Amino acid sequence: MTFTDPTLSIVVPVHNEADVIPTLLKRLTLVCRKEKMATELLFVDDGSQDNSVALLLQARRWCPEIRVLQLSRNFGKEAAVTAGLSHAKGDAVILIDADLQDPPELIPQMLAEWRKGADVVLMKRRSRAGESWFKKLTASLFYRLINRISDAPIPVDIGDFRLMSRRTVDALNQLPERNRYLKGMFAWVGMPTVTLEFDRDPRMAGQTKWNYLKLLHLAMEGITSFSTRPLRIALVLGLLAAGAGGFFGLWEVLKTLVVGVSTPGYASMIAIVTFLSGVQLLCVGLLGEYVGRIYMETKQRPVFILAEDSDERIPDFQPTL
Ligand code: UDP
Ligand code: MG
């Protein structure tokens, strides 16, 4: 290894992954050793309650390239990744999940594309083993929806597993928003991109940290962070409903004038009233989503709080890879 080599940062968000960390470290270091680049393995502990942190800190004895950032509590994956990206020093930064769903063995391929000049190397899932058909279906519907309404399309079947060049990471770090919908932010930044395909493995051990409520929240985040088009759709809906209501009223008045007072349909009235109040509530709720986001942004709170940085405590580390 020479010090003129570009450095590589591998950013791994970790939340209760003690079961996979030994294997993860083994596979990651094996790959890094072959690459012969000055590498940092940047683990961001997102408020783990198991002994993930202890395992990582212990591993620093035989693998000093490991750096562990500990957030003060569980802030969520997006915040953990944001923390990692803002501290990564490498000229190339690779983002990878801790659960080995993204095989580290693909890193050399990604680096090869980067050396050829790509700024972003995306890893597209050819298959998604170990995921239910319901998750696959909802994911595909969500991407179709979001790409309809947002301005920078988000590529389908691409997770956070990716390589980014220094300037891409710098550009991302400059985006000031607090609501961090990373998939959308990556797409927004753009840059010359190469896409490679891979087969996504099932989770090696442990449980997925996502549930449908969290995914719904992320979906809402994705839609509202990147488009104000839903507001316009609400407006159009309102216009249509008001127009239809106006015509219906006019029709009723004319009918009364011509045919005389009829016994009006109670059922149809109830149907119209409930439908319209539903539409109204929906639009108010939608507006609320945006107002809520504006509120969160105006608070200007940091995205994450760093409690501990392993590099601060041991300043004289010697890279051995
Ligand atoms: N993760 C995190 N904070 C969280 C939830 C997850 O840092 O609050 C990490 C987790 O440790 C893993 C990655 O994010 O490295 C992906 O999580 P998971 O495998 O649970 O998500 P899935 O692959 O099911 O989408
Ligand atoms: Mg996973």
Automatic annotation (TrEMBL):
GO terms for cellular component: plasma membrane. This is Glycosyltransferase involved in cell wall biosynthesis. GO terms for molecular function: glycosyltransferase activity. The chain crosses the membrane at residues 233-254, 266-291. CDD domains: DPM1_like_bac (cd04187). It comes from Marinobacter persicus. Its main location: membrane. It is found in: Cell membrane. InterPro entries: Glyco_trans_2-like, Glycosyltransferase_2, Nucleotide-diphossugar_trans. Keywords: Cell membrane, Glycosyltransferase, Membrane, Transferase, Transmembrane, Transmembrane helix. Residues 9-169 form the Glycosyltransferase 2-like domain. It is a multi-pass membrane protein. Coiled coil: none annotated. Belongs to the glycosyltransferase 2 family. GtrB subfamily.
